[in-house]
Amino acid sequence: MGARLHMQTVITAGVILVCAGLVLYPLFFLGQVALNTGDPTAWPPDQYGLDNFDGLFHSPGILLNTLHVSALATAMAIVIGFTMAWILARTDVPWRGTLESLMSLPYYVTPLVGALAWSALAAPNSGFLNQVWYAVGGVQPLFNINSPLGIAWVMALFEGSVAFVMISAAMKSMDPALEESSQVLGAGKFETMLRVTLPLVAPAVLGATIFVFAEMLGSFSAAAILGMPERFYVVTTAIWTLVIRFPPDFPLAAAMGISLFGVMLAMMYLYGRIMRATTYVTITGKAFRPRLMQMGWTRWLLFAVCVAYLVVAVFLPMLALLYVSLLKFATIFPKDIIWTLENYQTALNLGPVRSALGTSLLLGLLTATVGVLLMGLLSWIIYRSRTPGRGFLEYIVMFPQSVPRLVFGLGLLLGWVVMPIPVYGTIWLLLLAYLTVFMPLGVRTVSGVMVQLDKSVEECARVCGASWLYQLRTVTMPLLRPGLSAAWVLLFIASVREVGTSVLLVGPRTKVIGPAIISSWESSGLQLTAAMALIQVTIVFAALLVLLRVAGRMARIEGE
Amino acid sequence: MDDHASEHHIEVENLVVHYGEVMAVKGVSFTVRRGEHLTLLGPSGCGKTTTLRAIAGLEQPSAGEIRIGGQVVYASAKRINVPTEKRGVSMVFQSYAIWPHMTVFDNVAYGLRVRRMGKKEIAEKVQWALNLVRMGDLADRSAAKLSGGQQQRVALARSFVFSPTVILFDEPLSNLDAKLRAEMRLEIKELQHQLGITSVYVTHDQEEALAISDRVIVMNAGIIEQIGSPGEIYDMPRSAFVADFVGAANLIRGRLRQDLARDGLVALETPAGHVVYGVENGRKAAPESAFSVRTVYPRLSRERPETGLNAWPVRINRRVFLGDFVQYLVDWEDRQLVVRRPPMEHFEEGEEVTLTVAPEHCVLLEA
Questions:
Q1: How do the domains of chain B map onto residue ranges?
Q2: Alpha carbons B169 and B164: distance in angstroms, whole number
Q3: I want to staple B292 with a disulfide (CB 3.0 to 4.6 A). Which of A209, A384, A419, B243 is the partner?
Q4: Sign of dihedral through CA atoms A14, A20, A23, A29?
Q5: Is the pLDDT higher at A380 or at A153?
Q6: Would you say B100 and A459 are in contact if contact means Cβ atoms under 8 Å apart?
Q7: A469 has a chain B CB within 8 A of its CB
Q8: Residue A333: alpha-carbon gap to chain centroid
Q9: Which residues in chain A are contacts of B81 at CB distance < 8 A?
């Protein structure tokens, strides 16, 4: 036992070191480069200073743009999220169950795909909606998606489903008895809403606001697709431009990255504080059957609101992309339409695109498989073992969610180009990057299942005489399998749709699909890009179907 | 050595268990005789479950020694810690820990398969065990489809099927409803007699403890308050805690009056000046001492009894009908006593009556 304990300590210490290395190594280089005011090609730097941060203030427009877009998108996303959460958690809207499961779809559409689709729909001149508008006599474009509002719109459709999940979780975990007792004590429906319901949900709304805003600050794809053609830059796209131009300005990019990271870290800290301070809402962790409000005929109106959201966030964009991808020229006028499958043929035959698809799939498989093992081990150490230092490990594992993806990619780029080992530009660096940035996602998914698994179920096997390995094989693994499978699929999906981190790490021979879509958007037409995006979406949704089946099986086991 | 081992099946010496900074068990020692049914009783957080888990090897103690069948399974001084699966104990968990991905049969057969028993023998033994807990016809049922009571029975069958010599019970009945609990209590006692297995049973339910144990250990805040047979624990509580936790008791404090002692009785004078006689039980009375008086022992009567010992006029303050008994709150001195009487006696609220309690029912608590 002494020896076993020793082993466990050694393994845990090793895991902590590796994880801390994965997370902190890129950030260290980011900081070093940001503070490097000497010769930018010298390494290690010969002079340190804060001069690079001055560069931030030479272009205040970028900061203002970022705040502008983020604030707009956050406001819209919270309105969407709150409305949807209230309708689906609190009212007797028809087909609640179906609507609720459809609410996760906008999340899987991704900002990149959403931006492409909305560009097809609402670009000032060529967008279908505007074409219709001109045809009926409009002069000025009706919609302009290449604007701050346009970018915010696309992002809000996406983040709306994130806000929905956070707010509806709070609404569902609220014991209806809390409201009922208010009414029993004499408060009316309205007063109850004001004095009990709102204060209980307010922290979740505030938390979601901060969370979404922080994510917005670090978001890249929509601003890249919709903003850059109009020379409208936010911090992330500015960093990207600084890095890919020749010669690259790494110090300024790093300074911007570090600043963005600092802001996001502060917001995530605030978010964590709010969530911890208000856990009284979910003290039992139990899901209650909420008391549904009888809405009468209004429920059909609410139903229409939900459907409208799904249409603009999922179905309309998907249809638009599908339509564009099957056209030779983007038009809505029947006489001009020339149908073709050429775009798909090109996408599947063109060398770089094909290899990007292949690499993405391979990376997805690798990330998911290695990730499940790594994150299974991490979850076990954090939530099951009694090893000292597991609190610290949890902190490290969750840390990547406070680092904007693109900034993390920049850090990895800076950290590995100086290394003599030729890792930069290979699939391995991407794998390393994915495993690190998906750590919070993977650990949260696996541990969600692990903490549900009653500890005594494992202990009982030992008491019956089973060794640790026999117990793992006969009890732990079979019971964890559904959860681990779900984590596998989620990691696969996350890898295939990844853009922010990859965009700075792809090399000439290792392209992945997300960044390939962005470069196709810059160099070829919308039609080819739409075809590529749809291929990506198809892979993601196929994986999603697998996930739903796994989740269904999991629910059946737990439901007993 | 052998005799010693056969007499004391489980020996726990100065066991200390920490949870981080918190000391959950603070130096506990006791022994369990072969075939004995011992219960660890106490409120939640008293360290009873931790002690049990330390015996099973599921909790790592920080000091002390544990021997099972004469063999050391844990000793801090000798750095011995035998892993759970090698201790030869079995256990029934509070949550039952039924594996939902197996059938009833597979659950019960687990311990036999671990021991590499033959297929035929496994089938026979599992059937025997399931029949004993009256689950013989449900062997092929998926374990996920069992009710709470059925899970409990499967957990029981699984715990004794591989003929362990010790079974540890961790609050096995606390998740069942009251009626089922009473039923299972009897069944466990019956099984215990049939199999002659040594068992350690943890519960916070005093009724359960008194009903099924040969001996009871009352624990509080990580230490042992009292060890004794159910009768001893009930009739001669050692401390105010035991008196209050096991059954219901009135506590009467007073100053020792050695000058008034007679007939081997000890006398305490209450602050209001009443003299109460009680029994010492070999305990030493301190200048300030206390008696425990079970609520069922005092008698109420409208006539004044003839003997003068422990008889005082009281006034019925409240009468609460509780079915099997009636609980009276009576005003005595400047406080109230709780008295439980059979429902056939009837006193009205406000009535002035005489309360008498036999001196042998006033039990001196240890100072």
A1: 2-88+165-232, 248-364
A2: 13
A3: B243
A4: negative
A5: A153
A6: no
A7: no
A8: 37
A9: 1-2
Greatest CA separation found in chain A? 84
Chain A residues with CB under 8 Å of B162 CB are 464-465
Distance between CA A42 and CA B211 in Å, rounded? 82
- To the nearest whole percent, how much of chain B has pLDDT over 70? 98
Instruction: Give the one of B58, B115, B145 whose C-beta lies nearest to A465's C-beta.
Output: B115
Question: Is B2-88+165-232's fold the same as B248-364's?
Answer: no
Stretch (H or E) spanning B253: strand B249-256
Residues B77, B65: contact at Cβ < 8 Å?
yes
Tens-digit pLDDT profile for residues B74-126: 998 888 888 888 888 999 998 888 888 889 999 999 999 998 899 999 999 99
Distance from C-alpha of A104 to C-alpha of A110, rounded to nearest angstrom? 11
> Mapping DSSP to helix (H, G, I), strand (E, B) and coil, where does residue B140 land?
coil
What is the rounded distance in angstroms from the CA atom of residue B66 to the CA atom of residue B63?
Answer: 10
Interface test with A, best of B90, B99, B171 (most A CBs within 10 A): B99
Q: Is A478 on the interface with B (CB under 8 A)?
A: yes
pLDDT for A547 equals 79
Dihedral (Cα; B154, B156, B161, B162), 10-degree rounding = 120
Place of tokens 């215990």: B192
All residues at 6 or more sequence positions from B92 whose CB lies less than 8 Å from its CB, including other chains: B155, B156, B159, B167, B168, B169, B170, B172
Joined tokens for residue A13: 């210490």
- DSSP letter for each residue of A541-557: HHHHHHHHHHHHHHHHH
From the list A5, A457, A463, which residue is nearest B99 (CB)? A457
Q: Which contacts qualify for A519-526: CB closer than 8 Å, 24 or more apart?
A: A520/A353, A521/A116, A521/A225, A525/A330, A526/A116, A526/A119, A526/A120, A526/A126, A526/A324, A526/A330
Domains, chain A, ordered by start: 56-339 (1.10.3720.10), 341-560 (1.10.3720.10)
Q: Is the distance from CB of B265 to CB of B218 less than 8 angstroms?
A: no
Which residue in B has a C-alpha nearest to residue A5's C-alpha?
B60
Residue among B255, B341, B359, B252 at smallest CA distance from B302: B341
Q: Output B68 or A136, whichever has higher pLDDT.
A: B68
pLDDT tens profile A63-102:
899 999 999 999 999 999 999 988 888 888 899 888 988 8
CA distance A277 to chain B (A): 24
B90 and chain A in contact, CB less than 8 A = yes
CATH 2.40.50.140 is the classification of domain B248-364: yes
Considering the segment(s) B2-88+165-232 as one domain, its CATH architecture is 3-Layer(aba) Sandwich (3.40)
Task: Tell me the C-alpha to C-alpha distance, in Å, between residue B66 and each of B28, B61, B116.
Answer: 11, 10, 28
Q: Using DSSP, state whether B62 is helix, strand or coil.
A: coil
How close B62 gets to chain A, by Cα (Å)? 12
Q: Is B119 left (phi over 0), alpha (psi -120 to 50) or beta?
A: alpha
Q: Which of A2, A460, A479 sits opposite B91 (nearest CB)?
A: A460
Q: What is the pLDDT of residues A200-218, one digit of tens each?
A: 888 888 888 998 998 899 8
B99 touches chain A (CB under 8 A): yes
Q: Contact at 8 Å (CB) between A116 and A517?
A: yes
Mutation for testing the A interface, residue in B72, B114, B175 having most A CBs under 10 Å? B114
What are the angstrom distances between the C-alpha of A94 and each of A302, A306, B18, B199?
9, 10, 54, 57
What number of residues does chain A have? 560
Q: Which of A386, A390, A459, A463 is the best residue to mutate to test the B interface, defined by the most B CB atoms within 10 Å of its own CB?
A: A463
Encoded tokens for A343: 């775009």
Cβ of residue B158 closer than 8 Å to a chain A Cβ = yes
Q: Averaged over A191-196, what is the pLDDT? A: 78
Residues in B touching A474 (Cβ below 8 Å): 110
